[in-house]
C-alpha cells in the first residue's frame, strides 16, 4: 500500500480522465479513480490535491515553459518574435500529448466549473507573460497587448491542433495563427 | 413598501458598490444594501438576482452593444475595422460611468470569485464576437483570432481608461490599444 508505485501519477491521470469521460467529472470520486488504477486513495492524494487538480497539474508547467522560453530570447528580438519562440516551447511541451489533450478538452468543455478554472489558468498565463515582457523592457500597453495576443494565438492554435482530423505538429498551427492574426490586424 | 420607487435600481447599485468598497463584497449582505438604500430586500430582489448580479448586470448589455455595432457595419469593411466600430460603441456605453467603473473594478480585483465571473463574461464576449464575425463571412481561425484581439483591446484600453489620472474619452484609449497591438505584431 505505502510502497513506491511505478508511474502512479501518470496512471492516476489516465484513469481519472477515462472516468471523467465515461461518467462525467462531477459523478466521479477519488475512490473510484484509485480503485480503477489499482492504487489507494492515499496514493492519489500524494500526487494530486483533488480530482480537479489531475486536469490542471500540467498548466503550471506549461506556463513556466512558455515564460522561460520568452525570457531566454536575446533582448534584441522584437517582443512578438520572443512570444513566437515561447509558442514553440508550448508545442514542444505537447509532443506525444495530443490524445490526452483532446480528451481533457472534451471533459473541460462539459463542465462549467472546469471551464472557469481553465479561464483562470489562461489569465494567469497572460499576466506572467506580460510580466516577462516588461522585464525585457517592453513598455505598457504593448506588454499587456502582446501577452494577450500570445495567449489568444495559443488558445486558437491549440484548439485547431486538437481538432484537426490528423495529427500535425502543433508549432505549425501556432505559426499559422500568428500569421492570421497579423493579417487580420493589418490586412496584409 | 411595495410601491414604485424612483430609480430604485440605480440607487441599489450605488449603495451596494459603496458597501462592497467599505466592508468587502463577502462581508456585505443584501439586507444591508436594502437598508442603506432605504428600500426593502424584496425590492432588491425585484431588480437583481443576488448581490453579485449588481456588479454584472451591465455586462450583458455591454456585450449586446458591442456585438450589435459590429453586426451593423457594412460587410465590405475589414473585420478589424468592424471591431473598431464595436469598440466605439463600448466607449459610448461607458460615457458618464467612469467613476462607477473604477470603483467596481477595485471591488472585483479584491475578490477571487468576482474575478472569475469577470473572466467568464469576457470569454462570453469573445465567443459572441467570433460568432458575429463568422456571420459576416469571416473564416476560421481569423474570426476567433480577431474576436480575441478585440476583447484584448477592450480589456487593456478599459484598464488604461479607468487608471488614467484625468478623465479622457475612452474611445481614444481603444484606438491607441488597437494601434499598439498592430505595431506589436508587425513592427510598424
UniProtKB/TrEMBL annotation, chains A, B:
Start-end of DNA-binding region: 29-48
Ranges of residues in domain HTH tetR-type: 6-66
Alphabetical keyword list: DNA-binding, Transcription, Transcription regulation
Protein name: TetR family transcriptional regulator
Organism: Streptomyces aureus
